[in-house]
Amino acid sequence: MKLTQEDNYRYLIMQSKNRDLTSVYNTSRDIWKKLFPLQPFNAFYQDQMLAESYRASTSIAKIFLWLSIITVLLTATGLLALISLTLLKRMREIAVRKVVGATSRDIYLLVNKGYFWIVLAGTAFGCYAGWSLAKLLLNQIYRINNGISTLTMILSVVMMILVALVTTGIKVWQAIKAKPAKLLRME
After folding, report:
1. Are 169 and 81 spatial neighbours (Cβ–Cβ below 8 Å)?
2. CA dist 24 to 63, 67, 78, Å?
3. How many domains does the chain have?
4. Is residue 141 within 8 Å of residue 58, measured between CB atoms?
5. Residue 166 and residue 174: Cα distance in Å, rounded?
């Protein structure tokens, strides 16, 4: 409790046993009506406040979930388009390397060499920006919050790297499985 002037009083918190809740509520209401007959009695149970807080937290978590899903899909789509364009430009080189005896691993590393740093820098920037914006949002909504855990950030980095590996892997696998003669004839 904090000491304040009487005109700043807003809430009175009462504690009782579960079996006495109804009687305490009714008694409080009756006393309120005697003391302040023209003002409404606005009482509520603490579990109502907790339920509202839980509902707000759940809504925020759903918003973050959908934003992360959209981010992953946009990232995968952009990376897929970029890899497809690169592979179209380098199909002849890939075909020649396959004929000469390059393994699938060699071709995969050749294609992904340039994208490694881009994915790493994008992931680092995205993690920092996401952490900053989530912290800002949580600070705007809640005075006291736990913030964003380190595990969440690590899982985000791992998830983005896996999405990048799978996305590039699919397109490179398609290029590797194509017959070199067919690839050379295309140009």
Report:
1. no
2. 39, 45, 62
3. 2
4. no
5. 12
pLDDT class of 20 with cuts at 50, 70, 90? confident
Query: Has residue 2 got a pLDDT over 70?
Result: no
Residue 129, exposed/middle/buried by CB under 10 A (0-12, 13-18, 19+)? exposed
- Write the DSSP assignment of 9-72 as a string of letters: ---------GGGHHHHHHHHHHHHHHH-TTS------HHHHHHHHHHHHHHHHHHHHHHHHHHH
| Domain assignment of residue 9, yes or no | yes
159-180 core/surface letters (b: 16 or more CB in 10 A; e: else):
ebeebbeebbeebbeebbebeb
Cβ atoms of 160 and 123 closer than 8 Å: yes
Whether residue 140 sits in one domain with residue 101: yes
CB-CB neighbours of 136 under 10 Å: 10
| Distance separating alpha carbons of residues 95 and 175, to the nearest angstrom | 9
Instruction: Fill in the amino acid letter for 94.
Output: I
The amino acid at residue 58 is T
The model's confidence at residue 30, banded by pLDDT at 50, 70 and 90, is very high
Is the domain of 72 the same as that of 35?
Answer: no
